[in-house]
Amino acid sequence: MTSKPQLDGHVAIVTGGSRGIGLALTCGFVARGGRVVVSGRSRSDLDAVVSELGASVAVVQGDVADPAVAEALIRTATERFGGVDSLINNAGVGTFANVADMAAEDWHRLIATNLTGVFLCSKAVIPALKQRGGGWIINISSLAGRNSFAGGAAYCASKAGLNAFAESLMLEVRKDNIRVSTVMPGSVQTAFSAGGDAPEHDWKLSADDVAQVVFDLLGSSARSLPSRVEIRPSKPK
Ligand SMILES: NC(=O)c1ccc[n+]([C@@H]2O[C@H](COP(=O)([O-])OP(=O)(O)OC[C@H]3O[C@@H](n4cnc5c(N)ncnc54)[C@H](OP(=O)(O)O)[C@@H]3O)[C@@H](O)[C@H]2O)c1
User: 20: Cβ below 6 Å to ligand 1?
Assistant: First the structure.
């Protein structure tokens, strides 16, 4: 007897779903019977996702810090797939420099992507999740949100801010059957940092390892809310 795919009919929005962890999530949703609206800025990366995964995927090109993009993500999920069950706030950038050397524009761009984008997408999705009777908002944060390091002031602050934001949001919306959870990975083997996906980085977590945590969360019992998950390489270099 063949069993139904785990996420049959589930509609997800994955910001930054065209590469790295986001792409692993997009592929994982489709493999489990779900449909996905993917955001990203690069047209060619989005086109590559559609040609690989076909009609189970819809794309919205644009900057996650643009309120119009957040609205377009919800509209696309509703028009193409009939609603939305989960928002995965994954899009993020890392710019690493000492505060004394960091350009103000780099600070603003990082906070806009990693924090304001999460606010905009979360705010936009709440009515759609309520209409569905509940759902999930899952944030891809980082252990850097807990463990600060020199040269990481902007990135660490953005992820610490995300953790705090997510906790408040979780307390606000759980009465509406909306579960908010935050995943905090350590180093992941993606192109997030220059050369970060090269073979000598095999000791890191894979993008699929992080995606698996999200699928495990989605499979948790309706009574439970694992609100924060830390995951790190089992054998650091
Ligand atoms: N890699 C790690 O070691 C690591 C560790 C802990 C946490 N994380 C977090 O995991 C998340 C994903 O990281 P990753 O390693 O998968 O990075 P990645 O491989 O660089 O992929 C980032 C994705 O986000 C999209 N994106 C970036 N800025 C965007 C914007 N302003 N608007 C819309 N989309 C945007 C990118 O597409 P475009 O460039 O085309 O827009 C891409 O699809 C991030 O939040 C990151 O902070 C990563």
Answer: yes
Distance from the CA of 3 to the center of ligand 1, in angstroms?
33
98 CB less than 6 Å from ligand 1? no
* Residue found under tokens 């935050």: 182
190, two tokens: 């993606």
pLDDT digits (tens, 9 = 90+) for 45-78: 999 999 999 999 999 999 999 999 999 999 999 9
In Å, how far are 92, 107, 197, 215 from 88, measured between CA atoms? 12, 23, 22, 11
Q: Which domains are present in the chain? A: 11-229 (3.40.50.720)
**Is-above-0.90 flag for pTM?**
yes
